[in-house]
Amino acid sequence: MLHFTPIKIALVIMVGLMTLFFCLPNVLPADVVAKGPSWWRPMQLGLDLRGGSRLLLEVDTSAVVKEQLTDLEESIRVGLRDQKIRTRNLRNADGSVFITLNDAADLGAARSEINKSVPGMQIEQQGDDRLKVTVPENVKRERQLAAVGQSLEIVRRRIDEFGTSEPSIQRQGADRIIVELPGVDNPDRIKALIGQTAKLNFHLEEPNATSTDPRDLPPGTMLLPREGGGNVVVRRRIEVSGERLVDAQPAFQEGRPVVNFRFDTAGGRRFAQVTTNNVGNNLAVVLDNKVITNPRINGAIPSGSGFIEGGFTVESAKDLALLLRAGALPAPLVVIEERTVGPGLGADSIREGASAAILGALLVIVFMLVAYHSFGAFAVVGQIFHMGTLFATLSILGGTLTLPGIAGCVLSLGMAVDANVLIYERMREELASGKTMLNAINSGFSHAYATIIDSNLTNLIASVLLFLLGAGPVRGFAVTLSIGILTSIFSAVMVTRLQVWLWYRSGKRTELPI
């Protein structure tokens, strides 16, 4: 029998009130919404509706492999030196590290030390006194994938620190990152912040270097350019890594802009140890393979903090502090595509998308009223409820509405009406078979459920696959379509049925108006 329990009535009313509450931020003035709680916010507009910039970045994974090879060479050099195993030639070339020993009798000891210091490497013997060490392909691939994931997180942190509102940062493919910045029409400074590797390390300057000629460098050293001109010979070994930084802030020292930094506990201990053991030597502060400054260590610095000076402007000091706080990129990023969408184009997209949505909704309303009369009006009310619930859900989730998202809304509206059509047509069939009006109504709702669930479930699976496998606009379409499918089932089954129940209870009914 047609019946609606008080619990179901309370559920529909509660969902309706929540829908109204969470839809309000989308129509109220911004200053009114700003006074409300942080979780009571409107939907965000995507790049195609609001305007802004879109960057497609590519992670230079070849640099990751090159750095991995350099690290391997230095680890082998330090390990062999600690074990007093002498070499006359240790270098990396063609994706491998080649080691020539002074004494062929040390071959076994060298192989054991390499296995101990850099486990998992492929070691080949070439002659009586030569070894070739290669990084396995699976280890290279893992390092590259990790670099892309780390780059994604660091780009997100840098943009969040910069203060851009509602950015969209997504991974695309194996080594690309899409950055969408709504409301940003001049992304040059953001590109500079994103693209700078910002790898900060502290190296000791080599005191025994007598020349800056690359051919005369002592073993275990490298020649780096200095900010402002000239070159500096530093030891390859990183004394303190910038990864140990926990804070960096712009400041002034004797009227000059500087960047104050602070290490974590382990980094602070290491910094104190380095400065204690090397009083009188120079400590080079290296940013992206360039020496910013190389001050003399006059005494131990046990505090684990200090400052970097390098002829900064106020803005460059702020940017460097931001980069250091966000962390260093594991590999350079290359901008391979840049697009800017003006706010005028976004306004046109909103207007055209809204027009298409309104036209589609009007056509649906006209069809339902003509085909099903007052029951068609019940379906229209249900669809209004459905769209309100859809927008409220997007607002609760902090979703971003894009032009493909509007298309998903319109499609979900058509699919929601389809559920009402199934119910009403089932009622007509039951009436035609000779059943009473009440039995026809009951059969229409009860027997159409299975068909409604089956059809919507297949559509939901398709939209979930679009979300998981797609990117950018496809995912925006999939999100609104998935939410629309779920809310349409509720509106068709619960809201429409409540209206039919109220219609039946409001007076003596003798025939269905369909």
Textual characterization of the structure:
The chain contains 13 helices and 19 strands. The model has no long low-confidence stretch (mean pLDDT 83). The two termini are 20 Å apart. The protein is elongated. It is 53% helix and 20% strand. A 4-stranded antiparallel β-sheet has the order 7-8-2-18. A 4-stranded antiparallel β-sheet has the order 3-4-6-5, covered by helices on one side. Strands 12-9-15-16 form a 4-stranded antiparallel β-sheet. It has 3 domains: 6-48 and 344-505, Multidrug efflux transporter AcrB transmembrane fold (Up-down Bundle), CATH 1.20.1640.10; 53-60 and 146-338, 2-Layer Sandwich (Gyrase A, domain 2), CATH 3.30.1360; 61-140, Hypothetical Protein, Haloacid Dehalogenase-like Hydrolase, Chain: A, domain 2 (2-Layer Sandwich), CATH 3.30.1240.
